[in-house]
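Practice problem 4.
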């Protein structure tokens, strides 16, 4: 019965997950929302994101940082879990001064 439930969830939720991932994928150029571990504070996230490019602003939580990064691989190597399109996330607030 558990195998059936798991298969059912995979068949039903798999296409939804793929569609969501395609929608939130960042554009090849421009700003990117770097999602760092949720237990990271703003200072640690900015330090990691700043090593890859100019920090533009924060996301909804301090562990999401919007960055103008030419080399997005640096964001991942400095701890970013995901790179998402900041516009698809509904825009982000609080410009960094």
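Answer key:
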């Amino acid at each position: 019965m558990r195998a059936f439930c798991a298969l059912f969830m995979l068949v039903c939720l798999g296409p939804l997950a793929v569609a969501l991932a395609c929608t939130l994928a960042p554009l090849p150029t421009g700003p990117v929302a770097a999602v760092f571990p949720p237990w990271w504070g703003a200072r640690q996230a900015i330090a990691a994101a700043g090593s890859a490019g100019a920090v533009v602003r924060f996301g909804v939580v301090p562990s999401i940082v919007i960055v103008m990064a030419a080399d997005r691989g640096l964001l991942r190597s400095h701890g970013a879990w995901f790179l998402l399109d900041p516009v698809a996330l509904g825009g982000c607030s609080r410009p960094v001064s």
